[in-house]
Structure formats: C-alpha cells, structure tokens
Amino acid sequence: MTLAILSALPEEQVGIAALLSDARTTDYAGRRYTRGQLQGHAVVLALSGIGKVAAASTAATLIERFGVRAMVFTGVAGGLGEGVQVGDVVVASSYAQHDMDASPLFPRYEVPGYGRARFDCDAVLSAQLAVAVQQCLASGAAAWTAELGLPAPRMHQGLVVSGDRFVSSAAEVQALRSGLQAVGMEALAVEMEGAAVAQVCADHGLPFAAMRSISDRADDSAHLDFPVFVQTVASRYAVAIVQQWLAAR
After folding, report:
1. Which of 2, 80, 98, 151 has an alpha carbon 20 to 30 Å from 168's alpha carbon atom?
2. Cβ neighbours of residue 97 under 8 Å, at least 6 residues apart?
3. Partners of 206 in the β-ladder
4. How far apart are CA 198 and CA 136, in angstroms?
C-alpha cells in the first residue's frame, strides 16, 4: 500500500525527503512528487503549496495518478485553543473550513452538498499518529523547544480549521473563535490546507490524518521567527513522528 505524506512548504518536509531510499521524482500539474521507500513502506512525498485549492489539487493527483491508499499531512499551524502553545503538537480529529459561508442557502460553515461542516479524520490512522507524537514528545522534543526558550511541548487532539486567509491578529482570532463557538465548534488550531485534503479523502474513501506543530498563536503577539522554528522544532518533529509512525505500522 502506497502512503502519501503531504506538507505545504519545503521547509516542513525536507528532513523526511532526506530519509527516502530509491527516491525518484515526477513533475505533474505544477507539483513535484517524490516516490521512495521509508521504514519499509512505499511512500509518495508531495508539497501541496499554500491554500485549499492547491491542497485539494495535490490530494486528488496523489489518489488518481499515484494510487495512494492513505494520506498524512504534517506541517505547522497557528494555535487557537486554550492552552495550545508554541511548540505543542495538534493531532486533528476533524476538520472544518472557517471561511465556508453559503448562507442563507446553507448554514454557515456547512459544505454545500454534504450536509455537514466537519470532516472526521480516520480514527485508526489518527490514533497511530498520536502514539508517534507522544513518543516523540516524550523523548527528545523538550530539548528542541528549549533551544528556543520554549517549555516542554504537549500534544492536543481535536478540531482544526482551515481557510484561505492567514490569521494574524487578535481581532481575527476572536472573531474566528466566536463564530465557531456559536455553532458548537471549538478549534485547537488554524491553517490553510487540511480541510480541503480531508474533504477530498472523504470523497474517495481514503484514510486521512494530520499533525500540526504550533508555530505561533495566530495573533499579533510576539512570536518566533518562522524559519528558525521550522528548522529547530517543526522539521525535527516531522522526521521523528513520521519515522515512528511508519515503524509501528
């Protein structure tokens, strides 16, 4: 079974790509796909680019052209939930699009044609990923966050939301949280791709799971330099977690 590992940006995946054996690349529809072996599994690495349309296009290609049978997204996100801090890891249990609004024809956040706003991640795959995250955080992760003056990281599991907007102010965060809470949704993190991939995988009946390293609090408070965080923390998380996840499969 071929597994897909998706990230939005090269910096989020470079460490994983370096571990592949028998690597070979294919350029298709503006993306580069790298096939190879990792921990005894056939995998395809792909960079989705930023945003829901780019992510959906990449996910569809992975399914239709490369025949993947499960998909995992690893990258960074902004923290939204109480207690979700920089350096923590969120394993998504479900996804919603925070900018989906076809009202008054459909309730706010509901995806037309689906009758729901939330798309659940695969329970088994997410549980496997969560175990790998816990193993990573219990081993060397505290030393990595300490390099940036951050406390020991923690894992969270729950709703992650995606939208085609970079959320970067306290006012935006408050409006986002208030709108979601009004319909009973409490989001832990916000990013720009995962909900689209979750919907594509649901359409094709593919297991999907995602983990996101928290790089900032998605507001206008001071936060770390993004490239430094990715190199020092997020990329190390990705390598350790993906290896542990695949080794246990």
Report:
1. 151
2. 52, 109, 111, 117, 161, 162, 163, 195, 196
3. none
4. 24
Catalytic residue chosen out of the listed positions 11, 12, 88, 191:
12
Instruction: Tell me: pLDDT of 222 over 70.
Output: no
Catalytic residue among 11, 88, 216, 219: 216
Render pLDDT for 149-207 as a digit per residue (tens, 0 to 9).
Answer: 999 999 999 999 999 998 888 888 899 999 999 999 999 999 999 999 999 999 999 99
Are 155 and 133 in contact, with CB atoms under 8 Å apart? yes
Q: What type of residue sits at position 207?
A: P
Residue 64 annotated among the catalytic residues of the structure = no
The CA distance from 94 to 187, in Å, is 10
Q: CA-to-CA distance for 161 and 108, rounded, in angstroms? A: 14
What CA–CA distance (Å, rounded) separates 184 from 199? 20
The phi and psi torsions of 83 (rounded to 5 degrees) equal: 80, 0
pTM of the predicted model as reported, rounded to 2 decimal places: 0.95
Better-predicted residue by pLDDT, 1 or 114: 114
Strands (DSSP E) found in the chain: 3-7, 21-28, 31-38, 41-47, 70-79, 89-97, 119-120, 155-162, 187-191, 208-216
**Does the active-site annotation cover 99?**
no
From the list 4, 63, 95, 15, the residue with the least C-alpha distance to 203 is 63
Sign, Cα dihedral of 198, 75, 52, 81: positive
Q: What is the pLDDT of residue 11?
A: 87
Average pLDDT over residues 211-227: 77
Beta strand 3-7 with 208-216 is unpaired
The per-residue pLDDT for 204 is 98
> Binning pLDDT at 50, 70 and 90, where does residue 45 land?
very high
